[in-house]
Design brief:
Structural class: alpha+beta
Largest sheet: 4 strands, antiparallel
Radius of gyration: 41 Å
Strand order of the largest sheet: 1-2-4-3
Shape: rod-shaped
Number of helices: 4
Helix content: 55-70%
Order of helices and strands: HHEEHEEH
Mean pLDDT: 77
Length: about 180
Amino acid sequence: MEMNPSSLKADRKIVERNRRNQMKALYTQLNSLVSNGSSKEVISLPDQLNAIHYIKKLQIKLEKMKVKKDEIMGMERLNTSANVRMEMDLKAPHLEIHERGSALEVVLITVLDNQLMFNGAIRLLHEEGAEVVNASFFALDDRVFHSIHSKVGDSAPANAAAKISMRLKRVFNQDNAS
């Protein structure tokens, strides 16, 4: 079966026309994705090809942003655990003891809902024979700052203030506090 050259030429034209129509439809679809469909102007073929490069750049940028997000989230997890540790340290009582001859000043910093430590410090001072001259406190946020001024009796041994200081530190687990 022989085909004449004019029918072959017509078939090629039809195939080529179909290919061009298909490409036009694909470019139109691509253009609608890139320009968000808001513009009705016709974009030239080279501009449409640039859109392909633009989309590839956006994909690369998206991947970089995902990596950066993962890094930041990893840092956030580290910071969160550090904040929890710091918060736990802030909730631990802080004790400072200043000895001035027979006078003893105790500064105790606790959380707002922990008054037992203050009461324990007063009781310990009484047990050791110290006279509480003044006790005061003030609250700031969720912390309470206690200040206890006491005087070791004249009949007490010379190292009574040091003994009281050591016992207070032991009670509050602050052997290395100043």
